[in-house]
Amino acid sequence: MELSILDIGIFFAFFVVAIGTSLYKSRKEETGEDFFLASRGLHWPLIGLSLIAANISTEHFVGMSGQGAGISGFAVASYEWMAAITLVIVAIFFLPKFLKSGIYTIPEYLEYRYNAAARAIMAFYTVLIYVFVTIAAVVYSGALTLNTIFDMKLIHAVWLIGGIAALYTTWGGLKAVAWADLFQGSALIIGGAITLVLSFNAVGGVGNFFENNSEKLHMILPSDHSVIPWTALVLGLWIPNFYYWGLNQYITQRTLAAQSLKQGQIGILFAAGLKLTIPFIIIFPGIMAAQLYKDQLTVTSDAAYPLLIKNLIPVGIRGFIFAAISGAVISSLASMLNSASTIFTMDLYKRHFKKNTSQKTLVTVGRIMTMVFVVIGCLIAPQLGADRFKGIFNFIQEFQGFISPGILAAFVFGLIIAKTPPAAGVTALLLNVPIYGFLLKFFNEIAFLNRMAITFGILLAVMAIITVISPLTKPKEMPVRKDFDMKPAPSIIGLGTAIIIITLVLYIIFW
User: Fold this and answer.
1) What is the pTM of this model?
2) What does the pLDDT look like over 50-100, one tens digit per residue?
3) Of 394, 428, 399, the residue nearest 411 (C-alpha)
4) Which domains are assigned to the chain?
């Protein structure tokens, strides 16, 4: 698809404004708290839109839309709608504990709850997954989209995306990321809505769409479905959801940077409300792409959304859509880079290599590692198109299974059972990899969400046994920030309940 002079102008104008604003707003980042946690001063609109911008990427525009066009249909919307419920729980129960303790990173919380070994293990696992899986996958999926829609060479697109994200992330840390997300998060929602309207028009209207795709519009799939069986909704899908939205550093980092508990909670609920709309602007178009371009999706359904944009978006709007899609992947990549460098700097470098380092050195290390991580991700990204990965969305979710059940088990069990000893938390983190790896190798026919559920169940059982044998005699005390506004949002319970009810109604409608 060719871009007109107007399209190119709109594209560059968008990024000049977005990145220029982010660089200006983050020009005074000097300490570790400034660089990694935006001086702990984020308000709810920035938090909410930044959560969405960090989350929605070409993993969604390529992977999730492709799943909608392929064997999963609208059932893949469960990732979004269950996330809305998860966010409500995170806002009410998780966030107060994290903000009250004043932590920089999620692994840091494990040291307070268990010991230094638990923190180091989670930090090491997280950095590995970020750099070799999620960062590389987001770069690849973004580059694939630009390659498909705009005929840009894959390798050029890889380095363009990596370079832009590294530019403002290295400069201003989380504050730069959050301000860029304000523009990029808004653009991807508006761009998705434009594509949705044009797609409905192409298939002959809303009624025609529902009539011709009724078999793809069910949320509940058979128990033997290879990707999202209904059994996975009972437990399996909750594991990556709670890990991702409650314990995943690159998502939670902007909530840890909230100015107050109230601002953090409202920001999270704002994001939860936006999550309810995402399936309509991403999965619906994917299903329509399968209806319109079935013959062009015989090799992989990952090209569904890019084909839709390539064929439907008129001159004059292409530049904005180009900016929205590029912004989606760049914002997610920037968040991952910032969080990976935060964990490396605060949980590994400062904790194990140079404990008494200066604030200036911490910022320097964070910037250097941001550049290192983006280079590694860009080198790996072009390799991810191989058939053995079974699509980019599946690749990301599958590999998360090596860490998310163990991290979630350690957190949840430790939060509920006060006498859980450090050995139980460390064992859960260490056993996750061999247990999930065994299931992946010998029981590959089981849907990966169910393999996660099995792993999670085994780890909880092991932690329970260790706790019964050797319980803590005295529960550990968490640190408390005395200078932080811990007043909850006054309407948090009512707003959260409303979001949960709306989500359940949507499930009933698309049962």
Assistant:
1) 0.84
2) 898 888 876 677 778 887 777 777 888 888 999 999 999 999 998 998 898
3) 428
4) 5-392+499-509 (1.20.1730.10), 401-480 (no CATH)
